[in-house]
Amino acid sequence: MSLNPIKSHRARCRETRELMSDYLEGELEPDRREGVERHLRWCPNCGRMAQNLSRIVDGLRLLGGNGPPSRDPSP
Amino acid sequence: MDMTSLAAPRQTRAPLGPPSVIDDEGLVARAQAGDEAAFNELAERHSSMLRRVLFRITKNCDAAWDAVQEALLAAWRNIGQFEGRSKFPTWLTRIGINEAYRGIRKGRVEMLELDDSVGERVPDWGARPDSAFESMEFLAAVSERLDGIPEDHRTAVVLRDVEGFSTREAAEALGIGERAFKSRLHRGRMALRAELDDYFDEGYVR
Fold first, then answer.
1. Of A39, A64, A50, which Cα lies nearest the Cα of B142?
2. Rounded Cα–Cα distance for residues A38 and B199 (Å)
């Protein structure tokens, strides 16, 4: 089976994006969390997406007058 | 008020004292025994939250107001069926959401798929200080763009992120499982993120 790094990378991006909310809420099992963090470390696109998502969730909480920010997405 | 004239509770012993000092469980017990003042106190406590949620769903003051009234009437009529497995505001919110959807739903649920543009560059919202994302300008943009995402996803985001319902409470309010709720919530957040990409492209935040 030949490796297609672009396809493989995009598959990891899709998988990571599916898990982003659970990751931001600290609800992933350790091995999945480590997988997401590993991907965010070297995929700038997904890193930006996680950061922007985190900012939105914090903004929504402020809209509702609620406090604590979501977890820092930086691994 | 003559407290000795309270009707005997059907399910639990109804606590004595004015409604304003009794917790929700106690008020529910009294309401289930026929005490309208107790139910009115419950309505007073939770109608603001209900109004906010239903306004976000309907995006219309009059429709939200109607849905709140219908929900409170329905809750009073059915208070005997409330078994206390969830919190009262969660149960009330579920009734309210059903009323709101009754007014606006035209067909099947619109389900968002995650944007599959994984190959495209995700915009950088800029090297702004964290305070830029707490500004009134940014929050106004979030609020405005929230109205633009489909209602089922908007409801999930409003319940969990704006109103602070737990995942379990929010799923119960919507009458769906927690996994389904989390999926709806995530899609709503991602849709909102995409909407705000446009906002930053337009250069509103300095």
1. A64
2. 30
ipTM of the complex, rounded to two decimals = 0.84
Per-residue pLDDT tens for A3-60?
A: 677 778 888 899 999 999 999 999 999 999 999 999 999 898 999 999 999 999 999 9
pTM, two decimal places: 0.78
- Inspect the interface and report whether the beta carbons of A63 and B143 lie closer than 8 Å: yes
Token code pair at residue A63: 């809209």
Q: Rounded to an integer, what distance in angstroms lies between the CA atom of residue B127 and that of residue B138?
A: 15
Residues 6+ apart with CB under 8 A from B108: none
Strands (DSSP E) found in B53-162: none
Closest residue to A13, CB basis, from B118, B164, B192: B118
Cα B155 to Cα B146: distance, rounded to the nearest angstrom: 10
Chain B residues lying within 8 Å of A62, measured CB to CB: 134, 139
Cβ separation A52–B125 shorter than 8 A: yes
Quickly list DSSP for B85-139: SS-HHHHHHHHHHHHHHHHH--SSPP-PPPP--TTSPPPP--S--GGGGGSHHHH
d(CA B88, CA B119) in angstroms, rounded, equals: 46
CA distance B120 to B48: 42
Nearest to B161 by CA among B179, B143, B140: B143
Q: Is B159 helix (H, G, I), strand (E, B) or coil?
A: helix
- Beta-carbon contacts of B186 under 8 Å, excluding residues fewer than 6 positions away, are A18, A20, A21, A22, B114
Query: How many Cβ atoms from other residues are within 10 Å of residue B17's Cβ?
Result: 11
The candidate with the shortest Cα–Cα distance to B149, out of B192, B114, B184, B199, is B192
* Residue B34 token pair: 């026929």
Q: Which two tokens stand for residue A37?
A: 């963090």
Do residues B193 and A52 lie in contact, with contact meaning Cβ atoms separated by under 8 Å? yes
Beta-carbon count within 10 A of B161 CB: 28
